[in-house]
Amino acid sequence: MVNKRRPLKPANYVPRDLVQPKVALAVSGEAALLNRTTAAAAERMFAAAAADGVMMTLASGYRSYATQVATYNGHVSARGQAAADTASARPGHSEHQTGWAFDIGDGGGACSFQPCFAEQPAAVWAKANAYRFGFVVRYPWMLHPITGYYYESWHLRYIGVEAAADMRKSGIATLEEYFGLGAAPGYP
To answer: Is 159 exposed, middle or buried (0-12, 13-18, 19+ CB in 10 A)?
Structure first.
């Protein structure tokens, strides 16, 4: 579990089992990698989406510590630190660095990484079905006071089928609530 209050240790952690899943990719290099467990679940989920006529792409997977430094600093330069902290994890605090999380796209680039992505078929399908493959939409609508991030309909986190189905059945929308960890709206 990684969030604003629970950093990776060590901060420059690298998963040992990174692989490239056999799914449609919108990226290359390290961003096309996931840990082995997440990759296998993503392959099953992407195939099910395709069978339902929904095109889904892997838009951003693993990010090394160095990549997250550049990503976060870019947000800070463009918008300032306060705004950056609601849209990008600080280095050592990113779920992408674990290999357990990734961003999806719709294959055509429509509304990529923007609020309107929530209305695209890939996001609608993932919100309704991702739990069946062990995924949750990690930063749900209007729960930024708990997660620390505004809604990201594209950001999926693997937690396993049993836990994802339990969260859905119980109506719990955030990992902070599910694991009883308390809100993480900001950095300490």
So the answer is: buried
Short-list 66, 63, 48, 69, CA closest to 18:
63
- Domain extent listing, the chain: 18-178
The pLDDT of residue 108: 82
Candidates 140, 169, 164; CA nearest to 154 is 140
CATH topology for 18-178 is: Muramoyl-pentapeptide Carboxypeptidase; domain 2 (3.30.1380)
Mean pLDDT, residues 77-88 taken together: 96
The pLDDT value recorded for residue 109 is 78
Q: The pTM is what?
A: 0.96
Q: Using CA atoms, how far apart are residues 62 and 44, in angstroms rounded to an integer?
A: 19
